[in-house]
Design a protein that fits this description.
Elements lengths: L6 E7 L10 E7 L1 H4 L3 H10 L13 H21 L8 E4 L5 E7 L3 H16 L5 H16 L16 E5 L4 H14 L4 E5 L2 E4 L2 E5 L5 H9 L5 E5 L2 H6 L7 E6 L15 H8 L1 H4 L1 E10 L3 H4 L8 E5 L6 H8 L3 E6 L2 E6 L5 E5 L12 H16 L4 H10 L2 H4 L5 E6 L6 E7 L4 H14 L6 E5 L7 H14 L2 E5 L10 H14 L6 E3 L2 H11 L5 E5 L4 H10 L3 E2 L2 H13 L5
């Protein structure tokens, strides 16, 4: 492809994506050549391309941007006809600035798709250069497209085994792991892919972030796998599309602020639109499992052809009632039990919530929701109530879910007593909120909270400021634990300053800053007194942290130990 001024990015999406439920081309275009035209020139350009009766609007305006979107869609279809495609679906949306536009259309052959993209950019580059230049660009582009080599075709996987796709802002990995555990315990050969890697029957076969299409591909191509559980992240959908043509069950945990400002996704509504892709490719006889307490997630029921199964902590939720009225199902809490509701049937009890270790004695609201989601998905896949209950009872936070809400007991440095340590990914505001919920839920009378904070550099500045504020309001001692491998092109000093700025808003000074997570933990533990709770937002040093805690006498809390801590903390709460 030649270098074109108007072409910012050409991307082949090899699976269902934000624009189409099938492979598509995504073009990011610089509209400068069209935005700078006078109104008369813009009309003339449109006329040269065969588009009459237009209202271009003023230069560099949003009116002009919308005009350009219509013009480019017309241009794409006209050039496509030169390549023998008489009907081509084209979708567009504004880019990051008023001078940018994103255009998408399906593709079957990479060579032809690239030639079409090049032709569109070549004609846009000719805008304002006169009718002859435009005609020449059109003629050359049409010729290039008609004679372009076909190139490769999309290698989209069409699964022959059941597939569960899991997405959402928080809880994806925990939900995927729990589903895999239930399936494995029930005798299925199961593979799952997540941000931690690719696992086959609980064994790590490929470490790394495999929450995109490559992870799904590895699981589905592995011999003997009978069920695939695929964690599906925002980035993979935007960069390459979903790795499979369809799924049997889709699960959306929640939609909260994370990674906004990246990849053209600036709002929660846009983020929800990306996450909803997996629900649109769920088979009609399959199930779409949605969080009924999250309005953006609940709204996804309107865009799926599948049956709807929602989960809610409130058994009288209006959204749950609406789903029941439409013939769907609801998983909720009744008298302390995880239970399933369906119209015309009595409630189906599954397991007492207190018996599920992942809920941390019922303390973790987020993990209660994850359990409800997992119960829904597992039953939708055909597992029995007994199999689901057994899997939920035997899934342990530390052993089966490393790095997510792992709670330890650790001797103090001076040996005079014991403290609690909570390790969690907590990579965004909702994650830190959930972490603080757990910390305060086990904080004994007179105990302090010592917190290490930090996240990857691909968050916006306001996220770091807000994390600093939340930490300062929720902890007695706050230190920064940088993630040197996840700076994403930013400087530690810059990120540290933003966190400090947030803490200052709450009237607190952050006491220290560390280049990695383990040194931050060592520092906080060194200051802790008997009864204190140390918490750390951890990701990159997780294995080293576990080894350090074990080497210094730390033990993972059993369900009984955790219940005792929760009970002790509850007795300290004032009545009412």
């Amino acid at each position: 492809m030649q270098e074109r001024r108007s072409l910012v990015e050409f991307r082949l999406l090899e699976g269902p994506n934000l624009y189409f439920p099938r492979p598509a081309v995504k073009l990011t275009l610089d509209l400068g050549s069209v935005m700078e035209l006078t109104t008369a020139q813009a009309r003339e350009f449109a006329k040269n391309l065969g588009l009459a009766k237009v209202r271009p609007g003023p230069e560099r305006s949003h009116f002009r941007q919308r005009f350009a979107a219509r013009l480019v869609a017309h241009l794409v279809r006209r050039l496509a006809r030169a390549g023998g495609v008489n009907r081509l679906a084209v979708r567009s949306r504004p880019g990051g600035t008023v001078s940018q536009l994103v255009i998408a259309f399906p593709w079957r052959h990479a060579g032809r798709a690239e030639a079409l993209a090049d032709g569109v950019a070549a004609v846009l580059d000719a805008a304002g250069q006169g009718e002859r230049a435009i005609d020449q660009a059109m003629e050359a582009s049409a010729f290039g497209l008609a004679n372009a080599p076909l190139g490769k075709s999309p290698q989209l996987l069409r699964p022959r085994i059941p597939v569960v796709a899991v997405t959402g802002t928080n809880g994806k990995t925990t939900t995927s792991r729990m589903l895999g555990h239930i399936a494995q315990l029930a005798g299925r050969s199961v593979g799952w892919s997540s941000t931690d890697g690719v696992y086959i029957n609980g064994e790590l076969v490929e470490a790394g972030d495999y929450s995109g299409p490559s992870g799904a591909g590895q699981v589905l191509r592995h011999p003997g796998v009978q069920l695939a559980v695929t964690e599906t992240a925002r980035g993979g959908i935007l960069r390459r599309g979903v790795g499979v043509a369809y799924n049997d069950v889709s699960v959306v945990t929640n939609i909260t602020a994370d990674h906004l400002g990246l990849g053209g996704i600036d709002t929660l509504d846009q983020l929800a639109e990306v996450k909803a892709v997996i629900t649109k490719i769920t088979r009609p006889k399959g199930w779409c499992v949605l969080n009924a307490d999250d309005p953006r997630t609940f709204a996804m029921r309107l865009g799926t052809k599948a049956q709807v199964w929602v989960f809610s902590r409130d058994p009288d939720s209006p959204s749950g009632r609406a789903v029941l009225d439409d013939g769907g199902r609801v998983t909720t809490l009744l008298d302390g039990w995880v239970a399933v509701l369906s119209a015309g049937s009595d409630p189906l009890p599954v397991v007492p919530i207190i018996d599920v270790p992942m809920t941390l004695a019922g303390l973790s609201r987020v993990n209660v929701e994850n359990v409800l989601a997992v119960t829904s998905a597992a039953l939708a896949l055909g597992f029995t109530v007994e199999q689901v209950a057994e899997g939920l009872r035997s899934f342990l936070p530390g052993e089966n879910n490393p790095g997510r809400m792992n709670i330890w007991s650790l001797p103090t440095v001076d040996g005079t007593g014991e403290l609690s340590v909570v390790i969690d990914l907590a990579h965004n505001e909702a994650g830190l909120e959930a972490l603080l919920e757990i910390v305060h839920g086990i904080q004994p009378p007179g105990g302090r909270v010592l917190l290490g904070i930090g996240t990857a550099g691909d968050r916006t500045d306001d996220v770091f400021v807000r994390l600093g504020e939340m930490a300062a309001l929720g902890a007695d001692v706050v230190e920064i634990a940088h993630k040197s491998e996840y700076l994403r092109g930013r400087q530690m000093t810059e990120l540290g300053e933003l966190l400090r700025q947030g803490a200052t808003h709450a009237g607190v000074a952050i006491s220290a800053e560390h280049e990695a997570e383990l040194p931050a933990l060592v520092s906080l533990v060194g200051q802790a007194r008997p009864g204190d709770v140390v918490a750390l937002m951890a990701h990159q040093d997780r294995a080293e942290i576990d080894r350090w805690l074990t080497g210094h006498g730390g033990t993972r809390d059993s369900a009984e130990t955790l219940r005792a801590k929760v009970s002790r903390a509850e007795t300290a709460q004032p009545p009412g």
